[in-house]
User: Which sequence fits this backbone?
C-alpha cells in the first residue's frame, strides 16, 4: 500500500482506508486513539533529543512514541539518516475559519510541517463549519478563541463587519467607516462588545456558552483609551477599557480559560502583565512606523523579568517584512524587535512563534526571525517545535520525541541546527500514528 523512494512516501490508499483516516477521531482532542493503529518501527533516523540529534530507534504503537519494541510490528520504515524533529506550530493565526478555503489551508500547513495552530479570533460560525476538518490525524490541530472581547467600534469590528458588508477587512473612506460603525452582523460571534463591568456580567454566560478554547482580549494603545473611545470618525482603532482587564482575567480563570491579549504598545503590555494574562498575542513593535516614537514599543528589563516570573507566553508575529514595507520602516521595526526579543531571551521568558497572517503559514516569519540573529539555530528549533505547541495545547504530550508522547514528527533531509533553512526541507510527515498524505 505504501511505497518508499529516497525517503519519500507515496500513498496509494484504497477508498476504504481513506474513509477510515478521514473519520478517525481522537476521544478528547487528539488524546487517546480509539481505533487500532498499525505499529511502526523507524530505523536509521537521527532524532532530536532537545539538544542534539541522536541516532536511535523509535516505534509508533497506537499513535504513541515508544522505545520499547512491541510484540508485533506492522511495518519497518527506513528514515535514511534523516533528521527527526517534532512538528512545527503557529501560535497566532486567523485561519481555519470557514469551509471555503479549508482544504487549501490544511494542505499548506501540513506541507510546511505545521500541525498545531492557535486561532486568535475567528467567527464562531466559521469554526463550527470546519469542525470535522480539523483536529484529526489527517488535518491540523486547532484551538480557537472564537469572538474576542473588544470595545464599541473597537478592533475586530472593522475586520469582521468590513468582511461581512464590504468584503474587505476595514474601511478606506469616511463613508465606509460609518457603514461599519453602524453594522452589527457579526456581534456575539466574531466579537463581543464589552464597555462596562455590567456589560461583562450580562454577556459572560453567552461568551462561555460559545465554548472557546481560550479567551482573547484586545488592548490597543490604552494610554489613549479615552481619546480614542470618544472619536466618532474611526473604527477598529481602540480596545477594552484597561480598568476592566483584571476582572475579565479573574472571571476567565474561574471558568478555566486561559487569556491571550492583543497588545500594541508597552502600556498595553503592562496592563496585561499586571492583570495576569497567560499570553501576549503580540510582541509590541510588530510594526513601527517612521513617524512613531520607538520608545512606545520598547520593553524594559523589568518587563521582561516580570513576564518570565509570571510564566507568561509572548508570541512575536513579525508581519513587517516582505515587499509591502519600506526599507527604513522595516529597519526601524527590526531594531525594536531585536531589542524586545533580546530582553525576553535574557530573562528566559516563554516565547512561541506565530504568523498573524491570513492564508499563509508562519514559515517565512520564522525564517525572518532567524535572520535577525537574536536566537541560535538550536533556540529557534526549540521555540518552534517544543515551546509553541505548549501554548496551543498545554495539556497534550506533544513537542518532544520522547517515550509516551504523541507519535507526530517531521523528517528533514539536512540538520536544522547547522543550517536553520533545513526546516523547509521536509521529506516525511507523521502525525498521531499516521503518515500525512498531501494529495
Ligand atoms: Zn491577529
Assistant:
Amino acid at each position: 500500500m505504501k511505497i518508499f523512494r529516497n525517503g519519500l512516501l507515496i500513498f496509494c490508499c484504497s477508498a476504504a482506508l481513506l474513509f477510515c483516516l478521514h473519520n478517525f477521531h481522537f476521544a478528547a482532542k487528539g488524546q487517546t486513539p480509539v481505533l487500532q493503529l498499525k505499529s511502526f518501527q523507524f530505523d536509521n533516523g537521527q532524532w532530536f533529543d532537545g539538544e542534539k540529534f541522536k541516532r536511535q530507534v523509535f516505534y509508533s504503537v497506537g499513535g504513541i512514541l515508544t522505545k520499547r519494541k512491541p510484540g508485533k510490528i506492522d511495518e519497518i520504515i527506513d528514515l535514511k539518516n534523516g533528521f527527526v524533529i517534532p512538528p512545527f506550530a503557529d501560535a497566532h493565526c486567523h485561519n481555519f475559519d470557514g469551509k471555503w478555503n479549508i482544504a487549501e489551508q490544511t494542505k499548506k500547513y501540513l506541507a510546511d510541517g505545521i500541525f498545531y495552530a492557535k486561532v486568535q479570533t475567528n467567527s464562531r460560525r466559521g469554526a463550527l463549519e470546519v469542525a470535522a476538518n480539523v483536529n484529526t490525524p489527517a488535518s491540523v490541530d486547532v484551538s480557537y478563541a472564537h469572538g474576542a472581547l473588544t470595545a464599541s467600534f473597537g478592533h475586530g469590528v472593522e475586520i469582521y463587519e468590513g468582511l461581512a458588508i464590504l468584503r474587505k477587512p476595514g474601511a478606506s473612506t469616511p463613508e465606509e467607516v460609518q457603514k461599519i460603525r453602524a453594522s452589527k452582523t457579526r456581534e456575539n460571534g466574531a466579537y463581543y462588545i464589552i464597555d462596562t463591568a455590567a456589560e461583562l456580567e450580562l454577556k459572560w454566560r453567552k461568551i462561555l456558552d460559545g465554548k472557546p478554547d481560550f479567551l482573547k482580549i484586545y488592548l490597543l494603545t490604552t494610554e489613549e483609551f479615552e481619546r480614542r473611545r470618544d472619536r466618532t470618525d474611526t473604527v477598529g482603532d481602540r480596545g477594552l477599557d484597561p480598568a476592566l482587564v483584571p476582572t475579565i482575567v479573574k472571571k476567565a480563570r474561574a471558568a478555566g480559560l486561559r487569556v491571550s491579549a492583543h497588545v500594541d504598545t508597552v502600556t498595553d503590555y503592562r496592563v496585561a502583565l499586571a492583570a495576569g494574562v497567560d499570553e501576549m498575542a503580540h510582541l509590541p513593535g510588530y510594526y513601527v512606523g517612521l513617524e512613531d516614537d520607538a520608545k512606545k514599543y520598547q520593553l524594559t528589563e523589568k518587563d521582561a523579568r516580570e513576564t518570565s516570573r509570571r510564566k507568561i507566553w509572548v508570541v512575536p508575529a513579525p508581519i513587517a517584512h516582505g515587499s509591502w514595507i519600506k526599507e527604513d520602516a522595516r529597519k526601524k521595526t527590526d531594531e525594536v524587535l531585536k531589542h524586545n526579543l533580546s530582553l525576553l531571551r535574557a530573562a528566559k521568558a516563554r516565547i512561541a512563534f506565530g504568523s498573524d497572517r491570513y492564508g499563509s503559514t508562519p514559515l517565512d516569519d520564522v525564517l525572518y526571525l532567524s535572520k535577525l540573529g537574536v536566537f541560535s539555530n538550536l533556540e529557534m528549533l526549540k521555540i518552534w517545535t517544543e515551546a509553541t505547541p505548549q501554548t496551543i495545547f498545554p495539556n497534550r504530550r506533544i513537542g518532544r520525541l520522547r517515550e509516551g508522547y504523541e507519535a507526530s514528527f517531521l523528517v528533514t533531509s539536512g540538520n536544522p541546527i547547522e543550517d536553520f533553512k533545513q526546516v523547509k526541507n521536509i521529506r516525511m510527515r507523521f502525525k498521531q500514528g499516521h503518515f500525512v498524505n498531501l494529495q
The longest strand covers residues 40-48. The longest helix spans residues 327-346.
